[in-house]
Specification:
The complex is a heterodimer. Chain A is mainly α. In chain A, 69% of the residues lie in helices and 0% in strands. Chain B is of the alpha+beta class. Classes of the chains: A mainly alpha, B alpha+beta.
């Protein structure tokens, strides 16, 4: 797991093919997962609130309990 | 033999108004009232007669402690499924009815989500043009404000509270490994000056004390509110404030199931094989939240160290032994208790070998996987506001906007069973009596609370029916009686015979 973490940090700082690095290319289950995630990301790009910064800034709650 | 672990979950939902009056108290009231007026035949209010949240389980109150105030002026309703739906501080809150087992608790927690969704829709139908109320099932706004998701467990009053504290603390510190809802970044002074990308738990960084009465300031890992809502000579209600609100059903099931099981081992005096006392539980709960490798050694009271996973394996082993020696009756049907153990073991194994394999079971893994994929596609650093937006929108309850709904997480309860739980009470606790009386004779019930119903039959004085035992008033006990009664006065006559 520690190794996986390091790999993640490295790939994400370099950008590009990080997903391929994380999901073994030979694994059919991995390919399916990646395809599903890709579809999901397309959908998220559509439904994610337009101005993320403003959306997050405006979400202010009073403490509760 | 441990007593039945009757349980329930209270969730305070985040609330946000689009294009309208942003006052969260007003919006929460609109929401609860919209549900009550549009979807409930007769609104029955809450009875505050027995509320005493300032009572401390340790038998004293610390000087300067600030017990929560009971707010009687806010909107409060009791539903036919035995639940309470109300406004607490500045949030809509849904408390499940008393449930006999962890799976039933998942079903009613999901019914709560459904009720909040219907409330949003009802509120929007009567709202001024363009205004809309949005509800989030999460625990913080990312700016240092947290609101709770509390659990409750029925316990034997004879077990010394100090033993409960000692036994449950290691679990409360480490169960976030599977019960955490995940969060981008950090928001309290605790992490000032350090970079935190992601935490397992939404709530962990808000905990500052080991044991205490407060819930909003200096939050304690073990809350001492001693308000049993049942016969105080026999029962205690352990009020748990340390958890996150979960959307993944498996996470809710494990959060409640493992906690009920650890409490049973404490009640029956079955210790773990080694001492699990942590040197500094508050520090440990913060450390566990930011360690995605699960390898950080936590300092133990005896001078040794242990990882969060190792502590969980010890708790699991003690529970497994307990089940083998004494059975799992306290967790309800045998198959439910066995399922808790099976899934607990499987999740710990998954965390050890391949955490991402748990994306269909655990909220924090599902969210992390989504965030990592989003980062890879858009090349954004962890402090990009789009990641905070993904985090927030994971918890959005609107079906059209919820990111959680778009993930293929494992379901334990089918949709039809959830739909029934929106209106029908659980059959095997006193919630059945409460819910059935409200269903059959709504206009005769003046008020209700956890341990009594007050009837108003018009001419006579109000009549209170106490329900001091959470395990009485079940369908098995009183269904025939209720069926035989033609009217509420008939019921009261028979009950007083």
């Amino acid at each position: 797991m520690a190794e996986r973490e390091q790999q993640k940090k490295r790939t994400t700082s370099e950008r590009t093919d990080a997903v391929v690095d994380e999901v073994p290319a030979s694994s059919a289950a991995g390919d399916k997962l990646k395809a599903e995630l890709d579809d999901l990301l397309d959908e998220i790009d559509e439904v994610l609130e337009d101005n993320a910064e403003e959306f997050v800034r405006n979400y202010v709650q009073k403490g509760g309990e | 033999m441990a007593i039945a672990k009757v349980c329930g979950i209270e969730t305070e939902y985040g609330i946000h108004v689009l294009h309208g009056d942003p006052n969260p108290i007003a919006a929460s009231s609109v929401l609860v009232n919209a549900y009550a007026h549009e979807l409930v035949r007769h609104k029955v209010g809450w009875d505050f007669e027995d509320e005493a949240p300032g009572n401390d389980a340790r038998g004293f109150a610390r000087e300067g402690a600030m017990p929560p105030q009971v707010e009687t002026h806010l909107v409060n309703t009791v539903l036919t499924n035995g639940a309470r739906f109300y406004v607490d501080h500045a949030h809509p809150e849904f408390s499940t009815p008393e449930c006999r087992d962890p799976l039933e608790c998942v079903r009613y927690d999901r019914a709560g989500e459904e009720i909040l969704i219907r409330s949003m829709e009802a509120a929007d139908r009567s709202a001024p043009d363009g205004s809309s109320i949005v509800v989030y099932k999460n625990n913080s706004d990312g700016k240092g404000n947290s609101y709770g998701c509390h659990e409750n467990y029925l316990m034997d009053r004879t077990v010394p509270f100090s033993r409960v504290v000692a036994g449950i603390t290691p679990h409360f510190v480490t169960r976030q490994l599977f019960a955490g809802a995940g969060k981008v970044g950090a928001e309290t002074a605790l992490h000032e000056g350090t970079r935190v990308d992601f935490q397992l738990s939404q709530r962990a960084e808000f905990f500052e004390e080991e044991v205490g009465l407060e819930t909003t300031l200096k939050r304690p890992i073990v809350n001492t509110r001693d308000e049993p809502h049942a016969d105080p000579r026999r029962y205690r209600r352990l009020h748990v404030i340390v958890g996150d609100a979960n959307l993944a059903e498996v996470a809710t099931f494990l959060k409640v199931g493992t906690t009920a099981l650890v409490l049973a081992t404490i009640e029956d005096g079955v210790p773990a094989a080694r001492s699990l006392a942590l040197a500094d539980p508050v520090r440990a709960i913060h450390e566990v939240a930011v360690d995605r490798t699960f390898t950080r050694p936590l300092a133990m009271a005896d001078g040794s160290t242990a990882t969060a996973l190792a502590i969980q394996w010890e708790l699991f082993a003690a529970a497994r032994k307990y089940a083998d020696d004494q059975g799992l009756e306290c967790l309800g049907p045998a198959e439910v208790g066995e399922e808790v153990l099976r899934r607990w073991e499987s999740v710990l194994h998954g965390l050890e070998t391949d955490p991402l394999s748990l994306a269909r079971q655990l909220d924090w893994v599902a969210k992390l996987q989504l965030l990592e994929a989003y980062r890879d596609r858009h090349g954004c650093p962890w402090d990009d506001p789009r990641l905070a937006a993904v985090d927030l929108q994971y918890h959005d309850l609107r079906p059209a906007r919820s990111l959680f709904r778009r993930l293929d997480t494992e379901r334990l309860v089918d949709q039809a069973a959830v739909a029934r739980a929106v209106t029908e009470p659980p059959r095997d606790t006193r919630a059945w009596f409460r819910g059935q009386c409200l269903t059959r004779w709504p206009s005769a019930v003046a008020t209700a609370n956890w341990d009594s119903l007050v009837f108003d039959l018009g001419s006579d004085p109000l009549r209170r029916v106490p329900m001091m035992d959470p395990l009485k008033g079940t369908a098995e006990h009183v269904e025939a009686l209720l069926d035989a009664c033609a009217s509420p006065s008939d019921l009261l006559d028979r009950l007083s015979e």
